[in-house]
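Model: You mentioned two targets. I'll fold them one after the other.
Researcher: Yes, keep them separate.
Model: Target one:
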Amino acid sequence: MAIKVIAQRREVKLGKKPGMKFVMRPDLYIPIQEKKVFSEAATHSGISAGVIKAAWDAAGEVIKTWATEGHSVPLPGLGTMRFGVRSKAVEDLEDVKTNLISVRRIIFTPNVDVKDELKNTSIQITCLDEEGNVLKRVTSGDSGDVEDPDASPNPSEGGGSNPTPSTNNGDEPGEGD
């Protein structure tokens, strides 16, 4: 298996060097229906799809409750998730108000097995011109590095989050992703 990516040539008007550039985006897959996920899990586990769905629904309710209480919640076999916010920073206590929050976020941190699976999955890039004609195909030879959402943010690369849910999660203006 491989992750499919499209690199299409288009005009980029923003940035230090505007002009015609190849811009990458995931090649969108057809969404898998929830019913198929439960059916496949039933096949792999020997547990009926109905029981798996009931357990998944119950786990989902528990995850939502704990995450909205400020917990980082384990998703067994996948990683952890938590909620956070993106907000503006202010110097004065009097200026701290809820309107500083620009967006609420869901932060997922994959476990080592998921990261390893991603690291070891090749990436196939299809290069297209402006009209969508295939120019070439490339298969990855990169190091397979996987971003860590809990790592210290690097403003030049964007992103990062502080694991403490009650803070602004390290998403000060200028560090955005």
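Model: Target two:
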Amino acid sequence: METVAPFKEVVDEIKDAGGDPFKLCFQCGLCDVVCPWNRVRPFSMRKIIRQAAFGLTEIDGEDIWRCTTCGNCVSQCPRGVDQIQLGVSIRRVATEYEVFPASVRSARSARASIISEGNPLQGERGKRADWAKDLPVKTFAEGMEVLYFVGCYLSYDPRMKKVAVATVDILNRAGVDFGILGASESCCGESIRKTGSEEVFRRLAKDNIKTFIDHGVKKIVVSSPHCYHTFKNEYPEFMVNFEVVHFAQYLYELVQAGRLALTGEYAGRVAYHDPCYLGRHNGVYDEPRAVLQMIPGLELIEMTDARKNSLCCGGGGGRIWMDTPKQERFSDLRLKQAREAGAQVLATCCPYCITNFEESRLNLEYDEVLEVRDITEIVREVI
């Protein structure tokens, strides 16, 4: 058993940030009750906190890597314990000592790809904007209305490229003066930070901030809630503040301003899934639903575990790059909830959620009974 005792660096770091979970936590176990892992297998965040208090954390085990940082435990803890901060701090120790279980090794490959190419998907940096080569998309220049920060998955993943194409089509139809950074764009760093690679995150953040400043960026529109969260809440640690808007919010702005008309019909029952990093972490619940409700013919329905209680897809905290057995995927549970609610389409606005839901759709053989779509793709059909 590999241990680091007494985890002084972890404890000191958390105290410096203004909290001490070892004193605050009275082991009530509510974090375990609300954790999505306990729907598919036993897992105890309470136990991890208890072990860390005595320097007994097994950093070579699987458990410290299970947390998806969904925020359910943090939002409902009666004592204000920040379990995410504690878990990430422990991962930083494991990363420093390069102690990783087999299931995390794919995340290490993602880290290497981020360092070398600026993305976790082993895509060549020079090909980051290839998805847009036949589209009317400009390179961002100072004075443009917004920077569209595409993100890694929408730049390289075949399924998510469709969302990027739909996004620029909408922006063009709305008359938005926008541009992208192309090969100058790098991963936002949110997920790699959650896996404990703080140094890599800080390097990415500084590089991105320099690029934004050099290009004269003022307003950033993003497709990923993870980019949204880190630009909005974590980049200010570097003494900068940009106006950051998620595309679901921007769609609502465009419709309200009369720049986008949702005139076409979209017949069908649609269930909306709240991504953890858009909903629970940032309180954005209403705008995506409002956009869907304005579409003629669309029937918006709610699933079990909606809004602040939304069920995590399983992709946060770097889990999107780690191996998860089929029988332990939260995304399977979410698709079953969509079917139970009578949905024909499961809509969301997060590349991690869509990636996991598409895999579960195949795993559950739902490919003919349930469609997974980004809100952007739905809106594109009706304008």
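Researcher: Noted. Anything on target two?
Model: The radius of gyration is 21 Å.
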